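Appendix B. Raw example, untouched.
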Amino acid sequence: MRTQMVLGALAMAATLSAPAKAVEAFQDPGGVRESGARLLMCDACHEGGRSKATVPIIAGQQENYILKQLRDFRSGDRKFEIMKWMADSLTQEDVAPAAAYFAKKSWPAKVTNAAATPAPRGVAVCQACHAQNFMGAVQAEGMTTPRLAGQSYEYLVDSMRKFAEGERTNNADMVQIMKGISAADRDAMARYLSAL
């Protein structure tokens, strides 16, 4: 209940302080103002889809991946209290337009050029599902993998740890893969991928 009150207050503050153009930019494809207000709440953490630290970048992320994550948060297959509440605040009709809205945004431009570093041990296994360039891809069974290239280091290393420790279980393949990779190698992989 306390989390809901805090998020509600954040959403209201964001709505009231946002310039008119920003509020209009968050209108969903159907033009429903209430849906736009819900998307403004996403901005409190995802900063218009461009996140920092352990909050993932969702602007320009694979649409079907975003959709799956929203469904997993709603069903409880992926557990994170704030995102469960946020996903549940969307109506069933809002879920697909919200995923499409963020997927159509541009991935954030790199702030600095990272020095070219050799690919660390283990990162090649990521290419089997996330594509050669780590941009994400639709798999043969229809599942979509997320873009890893340029995602924040903090989010990547934390997600890999959660899979490895069985804390995040909404992808059984990732649980098994990450369990087989040492913490040091996961750290090197996250640094490499975030710099792409």
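End of appendix B.
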